[in-house]
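JOB MANIFEST
job_type = single_chain_structure
chain_count = 1
residues = 90
[input]
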Amino acid sequence: MACPPQDVYTLKFSPYFHGNLTTSGTGHIRFWKMASTFTGLKLQGLIGKFGNVELTDVAAFVELPDGKVGLHCGGAHTARASACGGTGLL
């Protein structure tokens, strides 16, 4: 099953964790980190989850010093996610 392309609206490098970056956009927020492999550096990503909501557009986000991320999903929807994939509502 092929996944449709997901537009990226925002890409931010972490001010707290060297080598980490976060992207967000259509139907996703993804947490990336640089990994050293035998062929060189590669990006490895984890998809963020939002409780019972599988996919949602993420309009904006801010990374907090503890690694958690506050996000705005459009309208009045605000949520919280961590880089390890844990979630909770604000």
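[summary]
The two ends are 34 Å apart (CA to CA).
The CA atoms of residues 8 and 25 lie 4 Å apart.
exit_status = 0
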